[in-house]
Specification:
Elements (H helix, E strand, L loop, with lengths): L8 E3 L3 H5 L10 H9 L2 H7 L14 H14 L5 E4 L7 H12 L3 E4 H19 L11 E11 L2 E11 L7 E6 L5 H11 L1 H15 L7 E6 L6 E4 L3 H24 L13
Parallel strand pairs: 2-3, 6-7
Antiparallel strand pairs: 1-4, 4-5, 7-8
Helix pairs in contact: 2-3, 2-8, 2-9, 4-6, 8-9
């Protein structure tokens, strides 16, 4: 594979280019770092696009497609949306239209699903424009910016949903959910599933811009009426834990790349 990225920097790449890993050697992303930490190097190797290019990728679920469409409508960046004028995809004509749109790299939604996510995006945008903690989201910056940097001997990469031009401003990550976005409900998701994202990206921006940005703003949108929005940011205690996690993931990735050893669950678990 010819590398689209040869030097650390901020790039404008498509989702397909980014997810194929455009770095000079197999790079560590936040999603792969999470697999390393929560599962094992064996799982990370299996899921990496460069280390296992033949891994199976299933068709996106409706929730995934609606989430991608929400990004496209709010951030105005990303794949085009194909709206199919059918009630379902059971007919031959509908299946052919769907498959053709997928082949062109488009987000595919039935008309009824598109209407719902369009209403969601409009409601979310109205709410966000009234919030002071999201003022930078509609300022000067780059949507879906690819960042690539080196941490010691490890190439790292990330795609920032919205990267403000101001290097001190917080980065933004937009997430659509079919569940509750209430602070009481979603806070646990930030701790368990997304805690490393803020510190991982912050390291990249510090390496590229020389300045550590403010803690990331996670914008969570309920993809069902009345389309409520919550905004989250990690506290110092969570950032401290996450920073240690990121250091461990980078070290583990470096060792696996050097030795080409990708162990699974190597230690016996002693359960009380």
């Amino acid at each position: 594979m010819k590398s689209l990225i040869t030097q650390p920097g901020i790039y404008d790449l498509s989702n397909e280019q980014y997810h194929a890993d455009p770095c000079p050697e197999p790079s560590l992303s936040n999603s792969i770092a999470k697999v390393l930490l929560k599962q094992s190097p064996l799982h990370a190797h299996f899921q990496h696009p460069r280390l296992n290019p033949h891994r199976a990728s299933g068709a996106p679920s409706l929730a995934m497609e609606k989430g991608s469409a929400l990004h496209r409508l709010i951030l105005e960046k990303g794949a085009d949306i194909a709206v199919l004028p059918f009630d379902n995809c059971r007919t031959k004509e509908a299946k052919e239209a769907r498959d053709c749109a997928y082949a062109e790299g488009k987000i595919v939604l039935l008309e009824k699903n598109f209407d719902e996510i369009f209403a969601c995006a409009e409601a979310a945008r109205d709410q966000l424009q009234q919030r002071e903690d999201c003022s930078e989201l509609f300022g000067h910056g780059q949507a879906e910016a690819t960042i690539a940097w080196k941490s010691s001997d490890v190439w790292c990469r990330g795609m920032v949903d919205f990267l403000p031009d101001n290097p001190r401003a917080p980065l933004f990550d937009l997430k659509g959910t079919t569940k509750s976005a209430s602070p009481h409900e979603w806070s646990s998701s930030l701790v368990s599933d997304y805690r490393t994202q803020d510190r991982f990206y912050a390291r990249g921006l510090k390496a590229l811009r020389g300045v550590t940005p403010q803690p990331m703003r996670f914008v969570v949108v309920e993809m069902y009426a009345p389309y409520a929005v919550s905004v989250f940011t990690p506290a110092q205690s969570l950032m401290h834990v996450a920073d240690e996690n990121v250091t461990r993931a980078i070290h583990l990735w470096s060792e696996c790349m050097k030795t080409n050893r990708w162990p699974g669950y190597a230690h016996m678990a002693h359960v009380e």
